[in-house]
Design goal:
With 404 residues, the chain is an alpha/beta fold. It has 13 helices and 14 strands.
Length: 404
Amino acid sequence: MKWVRYGRYTPEDFEVSSEDLLKALSDFLLRSGFDNPYDPTPGRKLSFEELKRAIEEALYNDSLFDEERLEQLREMLQRMSQEDIDKLVQRLADQLVNEGYLQQDGQGQTGAGESPEGTVEVTDKSIDFLGFKTLKDLLGSLGKASFGAHDTRDMATGVESSGASKPYEFGDTMNLDISTTLFSAMQRDGVQLPLNLEYSDLHVHQSEYRSSCATVLMLDCSHSMILYGEDRFTPAKKVALALAHLIRTQYPGDSLRLVLFHDSAEEVRLADLAQVQVGPWYTNTRDGLILAQRLLDKERKDMKQIIMITDGKPSALTLEDGRMYRNAFGLDPLVISRTLEEVGRCKRQGILINTFMLASDHGLVQFVQQVTQLCRGKAYFTTPYTLGEYLLLDYMNRKTRTIH
C-alpha cells in the first residue's frame, strides 16, 4: 500500500513574500466602503479576523500568483486540512505585522493557530509601498527630475544647461560657459599668454527655469462615490498615494496636502488615507475650496494648484449661521453661485484648478464648464480606470489642452 506523508506547510512553501501579499490586498487595505455602502460607521479600523479572511481569499484568486503557480497552490491547498490552512493564514498575517507593513492594536504578537482580537492599521511603510506600486503601474519608469522641476516659459541660469549662453549679469548662477568666455577674450586681445579676462568676457550657460508647486488634492467622499455599481473612491485613494510618492521622490521641492470634502471639508494626513471611507454625505465643494485656499496661503511656492476629483455636482452648502443647506436635485442656484464665488477667489489668488470628473451627466458638465471658464484650469472627464494616467501625466507634463 502506498503512503503519502505530509509535513507542515510554511509561507516559504508557497513563496509568498510580504510585498506580493500586500499588492494582492491593496484594494482590501484601501477599502472605500463599496462592499457595504450603507455601513453606519465609515472609517472604522480593520479587525484581525477580517485581515485573515482577506488573506485566505487572496490565496485562492489569481491576484497573488501567475496561472501556473496558482494551479500548484490550489493542489497544495486541497491536500491541506482547514486547520493547516488557518495556521498558514495566521503565519502570513503575522508576517505582515512582523515586517512592519501592518500594526496590530488591542493585543500583542500572537502565535500560530491563535485567534487574536483587536484591529490592524496600515503603517507608513505600507503607504509608501502602495504609492510606489501604483505609480509604477501607471507610468512605468520615470525620467530624471530635480528640485523644483516643473517647466515654465522662462529661462534662467541654473545648473542643467539647455540653451545658448549669455553675458554674465550680477546675480546669475556662476555656471560659466568656458569656451565662449575664452573665445570672447581672444577675439579682443588675440591669442596670447597670459590671457587677459575682463568682466564683459564672462558668459554663463542658460537653463530652463523650473518652478516648485504647492498642490492641494481634493477628494470627494460623498456617498455617490461608491453607488451605482462602481467603486470610484478606491482608485482616487490610489492616485493620491501615487502622487505623493511621485512628489517625494521626483519633485522634492513640491508640497502636497490632502482635503476630503463631503458635508463639510477636512485635511487628512497621507498616513490616515487608508482608513478613510465614503459616508452618507452630500457634496460640499465650497467648503473644500475654502480649506484648500487656506492651506495654499501658507505655502511659499511659485505655482499653486488645486486638483479636484469628484463624481457629482455640488449639493450642499454651509450657511453663515453654521446650518447645513442640502439639495441633491439638479443645479441648486444658491449652492452653485456660492461655489463659483470661491472659484473666482482662487483665480484672483493665481490658484489653478484642474478638475477630474468621474461622471458625465448633463448637470455636472455644466458646472465644470463654468469652473473652467472662471479659472485657467482644465477639465478631464475620465473613469476610475484611467484617472491615474490622466492626473499624473498632467502633473508632470503641464499640457495646455483639455481632454474630454
